[in-house]
Amino acid sequence: MQPVARALLFPALFCALLAGSLPVQANDPLPESWKVYEEKYPPISIEQLTTLMANHNVTLIDANRTSTYQSGHIPGALSLVELSAENSKLHLPRNRQKLIVVYCGGPQCATWHKAADYASVKGYKNIKHFKGGLKEWKAHGKDLETSL
């Protein structure tokens, strides 16, 4: 490869990688990969989620990093980081038909994809995502649970 071509290639690759990691803005169309996840793992409203939580009919997985989870998560949620750790004492329910709801920081966060994939690989089929995440939960005045 010519030195000039190589000099132009690396900045272009860096920009492409950076662009792919930037959050989606509220008015931006969803990237194609997000659309696939939205179809495979349908959204659930805050009203539906709170009803399911009150009836103990849901398992929540928080896909945020450990520090975010520890400083505040939806009550009863399991941390994906802790759940997926090699020697984890946390477990998903034995009944693989049980509803799993995954979430992260808010509507522009895609980390919930990892939690949905984790549950899917473990054999769960009834997976939804709470698109509003922590941002919507707090905006509705709901309490967070901490584990510091």
UniProtKB/TrEMBL annotation:
Pfam families cross-referenced by the UniProt entry: Rhodanese (PF00581)
Superkingdom assignment: Bacteria
Name used for this protein in its record: Rhodanese-like domain-containing protein
SUPFAM superfamilies referenced in this protein's UniProt entry, alphabetically: Rhodanese/Cell cycle control phosphatase (SSF52821)
Residue ranges of every copy of the Rhodanese domain listed in the record: 54-146
Gene3D superfamilies, sorted: Rhodanese-like domain
Keyword Cytoplasm: no
PANTHER family associated with the record: FAD-DEPENDENT OXIDOREDUCTASE (PTHR43031), PYRIDINE NUCLEOTIDE-DISULPHIDE OXIDOREDUCTASE (PTHR43031:SF1)
Signal peptide, first to last residue: 1-26
Keywords on record: Signal
